[in-house]
Amino acid sequence: MQTPKEIGSIQFGLMDPETYRDMSATKVITADTYDDDGYPIDMGLMDPRLGVIDPGLQCRTCGQHSGSCNGHFGHIELAAPVIHVGFTKLIRRLLRSTCRECGRLSLTQEEADEYRDKLGRTKELGDDWSDVMKSAVRQARKAHRCPHCGSPQHDIKHEKPTTYYEVQNVLAGDYSERIAEAMQPDPDDEDDEGVDPVTLANETGLDAERVNQVLAGEFRPVGDDRKALEKALDLDLTEEDMNKLMPSDIRDWFEDIPDDDLVTLGIDPDRSRPEWMILTVLPVPPVTARPSITLDNGQRSEDDLTHKLVDIIRINQRFMENREAGAPQLIIEDLWELLQYHVTTFIDNEISGTPPARHRSGRPLKTLSQRLKGKEGRFRGSLSGKRVNFSARTVISPDPTLSLNEVGVPDRVASEMTQTMNVTERNIDEARQYVRNGPESHPGANYVRRPDGRRLKVTEKNCEELAEKVELGWEVNRHLVDGDIVIFNRQPSLHRMSIMAHEVVVMPYKTFRLNTVVCPPYNADFDGDEMNMHALQNEEARAEARVLMRVQEQILSPRFGENIIGAIQDHISGTYLLTHDNPEFVETQALDLLRATRVDTLPEPAGENEDGQPYWTGQQIFSELLPDDLNMEFTSKVGDTVTIEDGQLTQGTIDEDAVGAFGGEIVDALAKDYSKTRSRIFINEIASLAMRAIMHFGLSIGIDDESIPDEATAQVDEAIDAAYDKIQELIEIYEAGELESLPGRSVDETLEMKIMQRLGKARDSAGEIAEDHFEEDNPAVVMSKSGARASMLNLTQMAGCVGQQAVRGERINRGYEGRTLSHYQPGDLSAEAHGFVENSYRAGLTPREFFFHAMGGREGLVDTAVRTSKSGYLQRRLINALSELEAQYDGSVRDTSGTIVQFEFGEDGTSPVKVSSDDENPIDVENIADRILTSEFSSAEEKERFLGEREPPTNLSEHAEPRVDARAGVESDD
Amino acid sequence: MVDVSQHKLVPEHTKLDDEAVEDVLQEYNVEKTNLPKIKLKDPALPEDAEPGDVIKIVRNSRTTDKAVVYRLVIE
């Protein structure tokens, strides 16, 4: 095996054409690839010195065979220099900033020194040095004359992609006509008498005779004469002259630029002479980079790059032939341009302003730049996003009997993906048994590897025989078995809990099985979701996955510092039913509830029921899952106070706030104060207990659960009618023009706002009425109160009134002119005409209500679709920007260049998952101090002695207290 | 002109002397250029700050009460 080499540094620069020639394995002169016998032609594009792709042939450069020979570059001598499209911007900058005569940078010594200093400083600070270069070029471009040789400079025009012109202002050909016309009196202006030659001569300071010569077109007024004439007559005598710069001209120009001036621009002349941007020799990529494929019919199909190289060589040859034959300049220039086009598209085939080179079929060719760019390109597609072996993907389904650390793996996946076993004295019998089982029966083996490196496939036929041959030092690729660690992932991988390590449990059937409590971190459900699994291939990776990535290690989310794994949905309903009214259970019932947990003995019964049987309470049963020394007190979601003393739940309801995912107090406390293992056990057992509890009580929901008594319906109708009346009143006030507008709003807006407000209130009161008439044990109420699923609003809409539908946060106002539907009068401002749904879902919506409801619903769908794509891109950019930041051992956060981003991680140097916090205190100092004190002292007396008695402050004066406050100053905002 | 340094939302900016700068660089084992930057035109800077100076900024922090940050003045 090849050992990995450490990369010391990478340097980018231009390559000297001479280096190309030295490195080249051969010069390529013919555009043909293979001869009639199918052998590559010498000095052709498939020359065997460029590497080999056909098996059996030998590379003529390195002597190796296909597979081991990486290939070698060749070269094409270009008949004329051409511009490299990748450098057109830099070429333009250099043309504009250097002198056309002497090649020196058009900056004075002082300016040059200044830019050089700035460049050094910018590089030191790690900022973008190309900004300095740009500003230096801008400064140099201002010079009309070279500060060194004094020759005049012209503007450079760049016609994309690869043509450059020098723009000069020269005397127009029709100068005499222009002057004569300007001397004529203006026909529209009676006072204008025109200019006669004598006055003109006086004004310009020229001889009268000269003026006449100029007017006759016999003397060309250049320089100062031209300027004088232009000034006197207020006209422009010049026209632009475009002088095309051929690549050879540019090459000559760049050769004159001194090394020193390049340094000022931030170019390293030792590595990148600017003339190397103009190609005189073209490297030919090795055959291995553009392999030809043999089609079924025996025909060879060449790679796009080879096609392009054929074009280049053909044109190159025609160019040379025409030049030798002394063809006219026009033809040479055309061929030159064609050569430039082919070389340009060879490098990049997506240049704007150039038609892309196409395949015979009309498909644009995929050339060098297209191979690298974009999502499917070499970087994002082949290097960052490689496809991997030892991975599996299938549909997921729930299995509440698994631990949250486990994953159920289908047997066919387990027998395809293998783990490498190094055979030693201790496991040789085991290893032989795996091989003996063969590749098809489950805990078997697929391959063995002998110490000499030979890999043998285990087959049904040879497995018995092979098992006997297995010796120490062999490697056996055995199937996945229960307890192996694998990595499990669901896309989109938005946070680190999207990839976690699970222990394998091999199972029949075809889906991956998960415990439902790991759904929140993966954001998974079972409506057809698929997930990926990766088998780890070395001990280091397996150890790391076990210690760092196992699900139980990820119970706390670094996003908000609380648990992200916990009870969900039915688990929460279950614990609620178990603890809310503290029901009683007889022995069989109590044992049944706890049968899926570790608990196998019941505590002392709470009492005896009427039948004289001992009973246990729900809180007692729940307490069996808690550690014996747990003490806490918090407010539950239902609103009562939950008290846990020495591991006994003495009062309160266990609901979402106690055991739920996303910050359930008990789970959070266990994960932080006890251990990850303890909290894993707790979550597993809570899930099992809750399932048993919900099965004991039963929890189902039907349409009758949302119905309310007739008198309640009447009350709801009354509330809605009251709102309608109020709105009618408002509309009347508005139409009378007496509505007073709210600050910053127009009268129309005010009316809309008030109507919306009133209708919102109407729905809320309908909700309250409905809520009052629901029984406490109504399953929908149980679910919404405990936080298992649904909100009270959902119930309101089902039983009371659906309420106002909104599009863009306003009542529905679209449709026809002045009305939403043709059922209404134009200008109708009433609630029903603008999307108020007075019915409940249970009662059913009228057709018009249904239509408005669909409008609101559609907006919601569109919004979510837009939001996911927007936020996905935003997240990608954020990750790319922050990916190189790292917390150092000294507590600071730095990027890869060593620049400090935070002096202390998060200002306090603490990890959010290791600190317990609540809304008031970022860090729960009191609790921590309390815990440490308790553990520090063996008895309460000792602790008391250490802390001493706390005396109340001596009251010196009635004014003492406020004065203390004044000294402390004003409290800070944060 | 408003003196922003007196505003309650502007944290305290002080210029460090050479010795203190040396200590800071030593503590974090960095070059000056690896410190976070602050532009010379930043109105919160003390009057006499020049490019190359190191500024100590003491902010109120939600978690640690006071958080100290050093910045290098650049043009």
UniProtKB/TrEMBL annotation, chain A:
Zn(2+) 2 binds at residues 99, 102, 146, 149. Mg(2+) binds at residues 525, 527, 529. One of its GO terms (molecular function) is zinc ion binding. Zn(2+) 1 binds at residues 59, 62, 69, 72. The keyword Magnesium applies. It is found in: Cytoplasm. Its EC number is 2.7.7.6. Its cofactor is Zn(2+); Mg(2+). Residues 275-579 form the RNA polymerase N-terminal domain. DNA-dependent RNA polymerase (RNAP) catalyzes the transcription of DNA into RNA using the four ribonucleoside triphosphates as substrates. Forms the clamp head domain. DNA-dependent RNA polymerase catalyzes the transcription of DNA into RNA using the four ribonucleoside triphosphates as substrates. This is DNA-directed RNA polymerase subunit Rpo1N.
Automatic annotation (TrEMBL), chain B:
One of its GO terms (cellular component) is DNA-directed RNA polymerase complex. It is found in: Cytoplasm. Keywords: Cytoplasm, DNA-directed RNA polymerase, Nucleotidyltransferase, Transcription, Transferase. Its main location: cytoplasm. It catalyses: RNA(n) + a ribonucleoside 5'-triphosphate = RNA(n+1) + diphosphate. DNA-dependent RNA polymerase (RNAP) catalyzes the transcription of DNA into RNA using the four ribonucleoside triphosphates as substrates. Belongs to the archaeal Rpo5/eukaryotic RPB5 RNA polymerase subunit family. This is DNA-directed RNA polymerase subunit Rpo5. It comes from Haloferax marisrubri. The gene is rpo5.
